[in-house]
Design a protein that fits this description.
The complex is a heterotrimer. Chain B has helices at 4-54, 57-62, 77-109, 112-125, 130-148, 157-181, 185-193, 198-209, 211-227, 230-235, 253-261, 270-300. Chain B is mainly alpha-helical. In chain C, the strands form two sheets. In chain C, strands 1, 2, 3, 4, 5, 6, 7, 8 and 11 form a nine-stranded mixed sheet that branches. A two-stranded antiparallel ribbon of chain C has the order 9-10. The chains are: A mainly alpha, B mainly alpha, C alpha/beta.
Chain lengths: 279, 304, 327
């Protein structure tokens, strides 16, 4: 009973938030809204550069965060010796989870933008956010791997498999559901981040899209200036004209929908995978 | 043409090299996180050193006012720290009990369908942009609370803390639930065989067995609460205030850092350097806390 | 992991290609942002998308940091460039033009139900906001004995904002000297909400936020140095009677960037259309002559700042334009 009540709190809050935003912003949703650039006139302003920017940044983040996070988790669980060095790495990771996001922004500014010369681009944003969500992915991966019974590993070794073969063909498939949990939570966080992205130089007014991989080089878009949905929302909520607030609510609504879509994909995957595991 | 034995040995050598290489690659991945910390520490310490040359450490730790940007500057970090601690305490008072209850419910009691629907829904809670949560706390939760307690100021730590707690629930519940579900059925079956009820099994057998995972989830949740920025920046006010009373407005370390980094201060001034000193304090604090948590986990972990 | 490293290496090699595009890069204050956004929008339309303009909001300080590293062509600033930033620019060899583009009238507001505050003198404002008032001056009758004995609730921008700097300089006499016990917020909309919901509220923020919420707020006329109480309005600022709370906002243009034709065209467009566009976004335009003189300064190469690296209060536009500039 308590469980249902507790669930209800979460559900209620989300509904209140979502409905509130929908009521304010729904009127603004139209084809124009999705295909227009920002403007000083609230009626003409749109989120085109923002949602394209968010999508591309999320893609970049996933490409970096997933392999790095999962690889780290595997190393720590399967390969690392149980000594104080490993302990230090573990503490280090949970520590990173508590670093405020803006500090990642400051780090990225000094390192990626200046030192590596990657500029104020989608690539930098993706790398920054990947670092930000790395701890979540790692912790989830580790917990997922740790929960696999030793018997499975022993069976695999008994049949003559090497360590990597065991990991690749047994550990990873069984832990993929838990790993996906970590990725989902991490990516959902990344799409809503504002402060670190502004610090590395995301723009607020940008009336053009990154070059398409079909017209310019295949990786040109990674180095393009950009903006993301939360920044657009943030800017609109702090403008005096009330009409901009409706825009902001609509943008927030769209952002939550985008998160839903992203999560939905991963969740469907996880559902398929969890169904098959019984022990 | 090699002999069969030499061929087999060569293959084995290649396999060994390949395994070693893979291990190296994975180690490098793990080192990225270490390098990140090194980078963060470097960035924070570099500027903090300049700061501490001008403000003595003793004053930093004991002064009761934090007004670095005012003409008459005070640099007492306890003020900001109190804001961080109070808001985190409120958030965790909500997130940990609720998150754990939800995790137990979903893992031990709920039917499969409900679980597969509820879990993603909860994860959505973690996906709402934090500024949206911030405005939600300011414009919706605070007026609601003001109906119960009319004296409540427009900016306060309570509303921000509550919303933050709700945001952290999925961190706690999702990972805890994964850990609990991974406890083998044999343990549960053993418990039922001895005549325990579902509830007793859940609380006395499954939870202790999954303790390491649950503790990880808690620690992650706590870290998230301490490091949260935007919700507090928007809803708790930017007024540095030395208080442990959640009914007052206060500034946290994180909200302060954002305020200054994106504000109009010239970079390189002492006002700007304060953000690095504040950030460093936060880092040291969470580090000590994490060490304690780690030791605790190792002591109580169950192996099965 | 290996593939990731390879990809990064390949990408780093591909980076320079983007530089060929015609882009005008602008960053800086979020106060100046609405005006620059309006100009950028219309400029891009006028150029039929041949030139791209990007605007960021890293704050005046963040904007100058990037500007003095040569990363941006133009910096939005709600305050003049300070000594430390001038040094950074000098070390990096960046020379710049300081161009005022509009006025922001700081408006003091009270709740519409407040009937007793008909005007405010600077002395009264000082009594309310000076550091010595902290914890002591908390009721209206302590500021002016004719006002009722009721609690006073103060709202204002955060201590890192240019608005705060300017207001404290103008009212208390020293920049950043202020009491600490008021409700501070970065977001002026929150201040609007605060004052409009509290009968005893008093706050200050930019004119645009007052105009958009006129039905919820009452602007207080400020007694200027001639002894007249002047309400904030576009005309009052343009005439120069609403003082000292009208502050100029600027753009700083890098001399090196000005050599690029697209940047030069943008600056000229800004100065030619600034008046009309500033008005649209509820900022007060400078007099026509001011934009003309600023354009002349650009064409004649009058570089540097006239403020000597520190902020100033109550400088008229005419005076500004006549002064000697120094890099």
């Amino acid at each position: 009973m308590c469980g249902v009540l507790a669930l209800a709190v979460g559900v209620l809050t989300f509904t209140a938030l979502f409905v509130d935003m929908a009521l304010d912003g729904f009127g603004r949703l139209s084809w124009d809204f999705f295909t227009s650039y920002p403007s000083r006139r609230p009626g003409q302003a749109g989120i085109l550069s923002a949602w394209v920017g968010s999508t591309l940044v999320m893609l970049t983040t996933a490409v970096f965060a997933v392999p790095l996070g999962v690889a780290t988790g595997i190393y720590l669980e399967e390969y690392a010796a149980k000594n104080w060095v490993t302990d230090l790495i573990e503490i280090n990771i949970t520590n990173l989870a508590g670093v405020p996001s803006i500090v990642y922004g400051l780090l990225a500014l000094g390192l990626f933008v200046y030192q590596f010369g990657l500029g104020q681009s989608i690539l930098t944003a993706g790398l920054t956010l990947a670092l930000l969500i790395l701890p979540v992915v790692i912790v989830a991966t580790r917990e997922a791997i740790r929960s696999i019974p030793q018997a499975i590993r022993e069976g695999s070794y008994a049949l003559g498999a090497t360590q990597w073969q065991t990991v690749r063909y047994h550990i990873l498939p069984y832990s993929s559901a838990g790993i996906l949990t970590g990725i989902i939570i991490g990516m959902a966080r990344a799409i809503g981040e504002t402060a670190p992205i502004i610090t590395i130089g995301a723009l607020t007014f940008i009336a053009f899209l990154p070059p398409s991989p079909f017209t310019a080089g295949p990786f040109e878009w990674l180095f393009s200036p950009f903006t993301v949905m939360p920044i657009q929302m943030f800017n609109w909520t702090s403008r005096p004209e009330a009409a901009f607030h409706a825009n902001a609510a609509a943008a927030g609504f769209v952002l939550v929908l985008m998160t839903l879509a992203m999560n939905g994909l991963a969740i469907w995957l996880r559902y398929r995978l969890r169904r098959n595991i019984k022990w | 043409m090699q002999t069969p034995i030499a061929e087999r040995l060569a293959r084995r050598r290649a396999r060994v090299i390949r395994e070693r290489l893979i291990e190296l690659v994975l180690l490098l991945a793990a080192l990225v996180s270490v390098l990140t910390t090194v980078g963060i520490v470097y960035v924070l310490v570099k500027e903090s050193v300049l700061f501490f040359q001008q403000v003595p450490l003793g004053k930093f730790l004991t002064d009761t006012q934090w007004t670095p940007l005012f003409d008459d500057a005070h640099f007492g970090i306890m003020v900001l720290l109190s804001g961080t601690l109070t808001s985190s305490a409120v958030a965790l008072a909500i997130a940990i009990p609720l998150g754990t209850i939800i995790a137990i419910y979903l893992s031990e009691f709920a039917p499969f369908r409900l679980r597969e629907v509820a879990k993603p829904f909860l994860e959505l809670l973690g996906g709402v942009p934090t500024i949206v949560y911030g405005y939600f706390a300011l414009l919706f939760v605070t007026p609601l609370l003001q109906r119960i307690y009319p004296e409540l100021p427009g900016f306060n730590l309570l509303a921000a803390g509550i919303v933050m707690g709700i945001m952290i629930i999925p961190y706690v519940s999702s990972i805890s639930e994964d850990a609990m579900r991974a406890v083998p059925m044999s343990l549960r079956e053993g418990s039922y065989a001895l005549g325990a009820t579902r509830f007793q099994t859940a609380v006395k057998v499954v939870v202790p067995a999954a303790f390491s995972g649950i503790a990880s989830a808690y620690i992650l949740g706590i870290s998230r609460a301490v490091g949260e920025t935007m919700i507090l920046a928007v809803a708790a006010g930017m007024q540095p205030n030395l208080t442990f009373n959640p009914l007052e407005p206060a500034a946290t370390i994180t909200a302060y850092i954002v305020q200054v980094a994106l504000g109009d201060l010239p970079h390189g001034s002492i006002g700007y350097q304060t953000i690095f000193a504040a950030g460093l304090t936060l880092l040291v604090f969470t580090f000590l806390f994490n060490v304690a948590g780690h030791v605790l986990r190792k002591t109580f972990r169950e192996a099965y | 992991m290996k593939t990731t490293l390879c990809v990064i290496a390949a990408l780093a090699a591909a980076a320079p290609a983007w530089a060929q595009q015609k882009i005008v890069r602008i960053d800086g204050s979020s106060t100046v942002y609405p005006v620059t956004e309006a100009v950028a929008e219309d400029f891009q339309k006028a150029k039929k998308q041949q030139v791209k303009v990007t605007v960021g909001i890293s704050g005046t300080g963040g904007g100058f940091k990037k500007f003095c590293r040569g990363e941006t062509d133009i910096s939005n600033a709600s305050r003049p460039i300070l000594k430390k930033e001038m040094e950074d620019c000098r070390t990096a060899g960046i020379e710049y033009f300081e161009l005022p583009v509009a006025f922001d009238a700081l408006t003091v507001v009270v709740n519409p139900k407040n009937a007793f505050v008909r005007q405010l003198t600077l002395a009264e404002l000082k009594k309310m906001w000076e550091p010595a008032a902290q914890g002591k001056v908390t009721r209206w009758n302590q500021v002016n004995a004719q006002w009722p004995d009721q609690p006073m609730k103060l709202f204002g921008p955060g201590a890192d904002s240019g608005t705060f700097d300017y207001f404290t300089e103008a009212v208390v006499g020293k920049s950043k000297a202020s009491r600490g016990d008021f409700t501070a917020s970065e977001d002026d909309n929150v201040l609007v909400q605060g004052v409009s919901r509290d009968v005893n509220g008093l706050g200050y923020f930019g004119f645009a936020y007052y105009i958009e919420n006129q039905d919820k707020l009452k602007a207080v006329p400020i007694v200027n140095e001639k002894g007249r109480a002047v309400a904030p309005s576009m005309e009052a600022v343009e005439k120069g009677t609403y003082t000292p709370l009208a502050r100029p906002i600027f753009i700083y243009v890098s001399a090196k960037s000005l050599a690029k034709p697209e940047v030069r065209e943008f600056v000229e467009y800004y100065l030619k259309n600034g008046a009309k566009l500033a008005r649209e976004v509820k900022y007060v335009p400078l007099p026509e002559s001011a934009y003309r003189v600023a354009l002349e300064h650009v064409q004649k190469g009058k570089k540097g700042t006239v403020f000597g690296g520190a902020a100033e209060v109550g400088v008229t536009i005419d005076e500004l334009l006549k002064r000697e500039a120094r890099l």
